[in-house]
Amino acid sequence: MHTNTDTHPYFVTPHGLALLQNSFAETQTKLRELTAVMDAVVRDSNNPEENSAAEEAVRERGILQMLSNQLSGQLQNARVFHPVDDGQFKQTGPVTFGCRIGLKAPDGHTRVFDIVGEHEADIKQGKIAYTAPLIRAAWGCELGDEIYWNADGKEVFYEIASLELSDWASV
Length: 171
Description:
By secondary structure, the chain is of the alpha/beta class. The chain has three helices and seven strands. The chain has helices at 14-43, 48-77, 133-138; strands spanning 10-12, 78-80, 99-104, 110-116, 127-129, 146-151, 154-165.
C-alpha cells in the first residue's frame, strides 16, 4: 500500500475533485481488470505467446499502479476551494485561486483564464492551473498591474485587464 508522506496541499475546485475521484476510480477498475487477465495468463502459461502478453501486462500494471499512487496522494492532500461571493472579493485584486483573469498582451489582444487546480486545467477551455508559470507571475498582483513573463526565451509583459470571481466559484 502506498503511503503518501507529502503534506503539500493539492488545491482543487469542486469539479476538479470530482474529476480526480473519477480518474482514481477508473484506474482502480483497470488495475482489477488487468489483474484478472494476468491471473488467466499465469494459469495458461504453457502457451509461449501468452508469456509476452504477461510481460506486457506486468509493465502496464506497473504504470497503472504508479498512476494510482499519484492520484491517491492527490486525493489525500486535496483541499477543495469554496470561495463565497459575499462581497469580500475585490475586483481589483489580488490574483488568486478562483479568479477569472483577463491578460492583455502588448498587441492589445486579451485572453481570459479561470484559475483552477492542476487536475482540471485545460488551456483550450480557458482553464489554467494556479501552478502555471504565467499565473505564478501574476499571483498577488492587482487590476492594472503589468506582469513580466519569460515565454520561450523572450520577455513579454501582460496587463491585468480584468479580474473577477470565476463562475464556478460564485455558485
